[in-house]
Amino acid sequence: MDMTGSQHIAAPLNKVWAALNDVEVLKQSIPGCQSIEKVSDTEMNAKVTLKVGPVKASFTGKVVLSDIDPPNGYTITGEGSGGAAGFAKGSAKVKLQDDGGTATNLTYEVKAQIGGKLAQLGSRLIDATAKKLAGEFFEKFGEVVAPTPVPVEAAAIGAPAPSGAPVAAAATAPKGWFGRLIDWFRGLFKM
Predict the structure, then answer these.
(1) Which pairs with CB-CB distance under 8 Å and at least 24 residues apart come from 116-123?
(2) Domains observed in the chain
(3) What is the pTM of this model?
(4) Terminal C-alpha separation, the chain
(5) Residues of the chain with pLDDT under 70
(6) Which runs of E-coded beta strand occur in the chain?
């Protein structure tokens, strides 16, 4: 499976770069993330529980960061095992570009391989699930990295934010499938 795409994040480049390397931000953003542990500056271990079609599995694995070019991007390579559900391995080239000093454009190229029961589900289901998980990841990632203040009118009347969060912590984020893909990818590779 090969995918490419981009995501606009309403936060400065350095803040997005720091968040992409912060295990707590990643844990909050990755769907189904049970644990994530930084082994070194370039290695992480994680455990993620995901449901892909009828198959639900916990994946454990290792992720290695390479081609690190702070704050412009890196390559994520990893592989993970979901026991009887199968395995996944692949890599993603992530590039960040400043967009006017207050926002960042993130682009990515992903190459991934799956095997076992997951591979038997068919490429359409796998691709759709990967896109969904990527979107969920970046929606949550955007909320954590670049919270948007509530409009003055809503704050003045004490109305809850559209996200259901308290007014002071309300956040919205751009949606995209890359975030869900990265979540799925990191979960599979225990990032």
Answers:
(1) 116/82, 116/84, 116/85, 116/86, 116/87, 117/55, 117/84, 117/85, 117/86, 118/52, 118/55, 118/57, 118/82, 118/85, 118/86, 118/88, 119/86, 121/52, 121/53, 121/54, 121/55, 123/1
(2) 2-188 (3.30.530.20)
(3) 0.70
(4) 19
(5) 135, 148-191
(6) 2-9, 33-40, 43-52, 55-69, 73-81, 87-99, 103-115
